[in-house]
């Protein structure tokens, strides 16, 4: 039979698949002991297919190609967990093959090829494929479909019938391939989900009811689902503690090095997608590093972080400690400080301080921890460093989307210098409305002209010319504008530039090294700009003997 697989058939499939996974989700969750016994594989696969169903139903009357594209994108955007991400890649590959089919192709051949491409895509998406998992079950189904379609008389339902039967047999073998399954006395949870989906596809074309999970399949019997006994597949003390997922807008060529970097940070790495949008999944200990790997090459969003210990405890019915004893209330400011003196200044102004600075900038995870631990309902974040602005924004987005606090409001003011943060917090007023407070702090920070002096540690070409180790560099708004050999002279040159357009207040922040340069700067301002006020703080920051601002 040719003419292409009809869209109505796809719509019936997604409805039946969603219903079937809804019924089987608890059973599949109970089978979940690999790669982490967190008891959510069935739920993740159900939510992924449900998202794809919702997406295709939201474009009624759309041409088949557009509807299938919506289905594929819906699966990608809605994918949850390791199993969900792999499943979304499979569904996307199948949708693309059905969409590209010509009228002259046999539907049975299209379906067999779609299953093959789905399997290849899923293996390619996984950093380190493991046999005895849903990958193995999918491959067995594709192999059986390819064999069945060799018969010129084979129809689509013959292909799906063979694929579903082979998947069930392969599922029965998974404990022989993966020791953790054998020890727990269960088959692979993701593989069971694949069987449910293939059974749904067969049902659409034949009306046949799926084989019950406890029915003997050839010589293999799928064990009745049971929770893994204590210790079976448990997280080790040095194993990854968190599941991190996010969508990533980036160029497709950036994905191989991203997979490699996530593989260095943890395991269960799955990155799927294409055309600039990717779904990223990994199990790691360092949440911030996993997110920052995405930040380095694109825009992560819809970030979800799951702590396995809490999830496993919840699945076992054990009490999970609440992150806060009380609902979030009030307003607070979180400030990144680059030195002990700066930390004290921010703290004295009422801010919660996160340590930062060159070489020890805070991770997204650290900022997220600060947000979660603040106990506040309204939070203003001052990154005070250009490289920390994006991390702060990701932390804020994660906290808001993941329900760190009911009704939580977070605003990241993009301060790129410590002195901008000091100016912003100086006008912070909790008595104002949140929006008014943020507006005033933002406006103040933007009007601050800021500079600094530092010492070159290597040869480089700067916007002010070439520098060598030991040269003194003058910085304005992050750009090198002066090169010299005397800290005081370069500091004065920077101040002269900052004050060229006028100003009423100069703020100087002494660093940990060469604090005397601040005294020379004060003397120069008093001599050349006697009507300008000067305030000096001991910041204790490293690498920058003097930070400066003009307001």
Question: Which helices and strands appear, and what pairs or packs with what?
Answer:
Blueprint: H1 7-31, H2 41-57, H3 64-78, H4 81-100, H5 107-125, H6 134-148, H7 156-177, H8 179-184, H9 189-206, E1 216-217, E2 220-221, E3 242-249, H10 255-265, E4 266-274, E5 277-284, H11 287-295, E6 299-307, H12 308-315, E7 331-337, H13 340-348, E8 352-355, H14 364-373, E9 378-382, H15 386-401, E10 409-412, H16 418-426, H17 434-446, E11 449-455, E12 460-462, E13 465-467, E14 472-476, E15 479-484, H18 487-498, E16 505-511, H19 517-528, E17 533-541, E18 546-550
Parallel strand pairs: 7-8, 7-9, 9-10, 16-17
Antiparallel strand pairs: 1-2, 3-5, 3-6, 4-5, 11-14, 11-18, 12-13, 14-15, 16-18
GO molecular function: glycerone kinase activity
Protein name: DAK2 domain-containing protein
Domain DhaL: 8-203
Structure description:
The chain folds into 4 domains: 200 residues, Serine Threonine Protein Phosphatase 5, Tetratricopeptide repeat (Alpha Horseshoe); 69 residues, Alpha-Beta Plaits (2-Layer Sandwich), CATH 3.30.70; 117 residues, Phosphotransferase system, mannose-type IIA component (Rossmann fold, 3-Layer(aba) Sandwich), CATH 3.40.50; 102 residues, Hypothetical Protein Tm841, Chain: A,domain 3. It has 551 residues and is of the alpha+beta class. The chain is elongated, with a radius of gyration of 29 Å. The protein has a 6-stranded mixed β-sheet. The protein has a 4-stranded antiparallel β-sheet with strand order 4-5-3-6, with helices on both faces. The chain is built from 19 helices and 18 strands. It holds the Pfam family FakA-like_C.
